Amino acid sequence: MKKLFSLLSIIGIIAISNCTRVPENNDPILGIWAKTESSIDGKGTDSTREEWIFNDVYLGRYQSYSNSKLVFYTDFKWSEENGTYSIIYGDPQVEDITVSLEQSNDPEILALENGSVFATRE
25-121 has which CATH code? Predict the structure, then answer.
């Protein structure tokens, strides 16, 4: 009797888990966004690159490079409400931010609330 009950329990769990469906996220922010800055000093050129990688489960990765070397990274959560995206970082060293997507431009840009460019699509 225990074997029959165990078998039915396993079949029930498998049946229920196969019936769940993960909704597909087709948000236009998905992908890699970047901001690159260069400066020239007495020693040469110094370049800084920041990347935000948005994935479809409302998570992402922020990475900062200096002269092509990774110097900092952290994960973030993101959400969208009425065309405004909130980015909430997992590290207190980075300040949370709110941006909006400007799709009419080429390349597409993420803009800050004051209208300045935050990042461009890769």
Answer: 2.40.128.360
91: Cβ contacts below 8 Å, ≥ 6 apart: 74
Tokens found for residue 110: 């993420």
28 neighbors 103 (Cβ within 8 angstroms):
yes
Domain segments of the chain as ranges: 25-121
pLDDT tens-digit profile of 5-59? 777 788 777 776 666 666 678 899 999 999 999 887 767 778 999 999 999 999 9
Rounded CA gap, 47 and 40, in Å? 9
Enter the pTM of the model: 0.77
Neighbours of 58 (CB within 10 A): 13
Distances (CA, A) of 25 to 16, 56, 57, 103: 23, 5, 7, 18
